[in-house]
TrEMBL record:
Superkingdom of source: Bacteria
Pfam family, one: DUF5406
Name under which the protein is recorded: Uncharacterized protein
Native organism: Enterococcus faecium (Streptococcus faecium)
Lineage: Bacteria, Bacillati, Bacillota, Bacilli, Lactobacillales
Length: 100
């Protein structure tokens, strides 16, 4: 299970998803924002999701980040800027594939 953390100023949030295959160690660092595009999120407290394309064909995303005071920041931005919000990737659980 991979945890992706986002931050803008003092507003933070995260999503988690499972990734199959060889994803230990440095392999997880090869993840980028495109890995979130078609993922089924296992935990999504920030309401991360895709929005419709605009008239220029740009894809958009949305999420709601929160600061320590409980204030919310609603974010809507183009997919090309998603990486600017990502502050960490973390392996939070490893489950070995069952051998058949």
């Amino acid at each position: 299970t991979i945890k992706v953390s986002f931050q803008r100023w003092d507003y933070k949030g995260f999503v988690t998803f499972r990734r199959g295959g060889n994803c230990k160690g440095l392999d997880v660092l090869a993840l980028d924002e495109d890995d979130l595009y078609d993922q089924t999120l296992t935990d999504n407290p920030i309401g991360f999701g895709l929005l419709p394309e605009d008239d220029e064909g740009n894809e958009w995303f949305k999420m709601t980040l929160m600061n320590d005071n409980g204030d919310e920041l609603s974010v809507e931005d183009t997919w090309s800027y998603l990486s600017d919000y990502i502050v960490s990737f973390e392996i939070i659980e490893f489950v070995a594939d069952k051998e058949e």
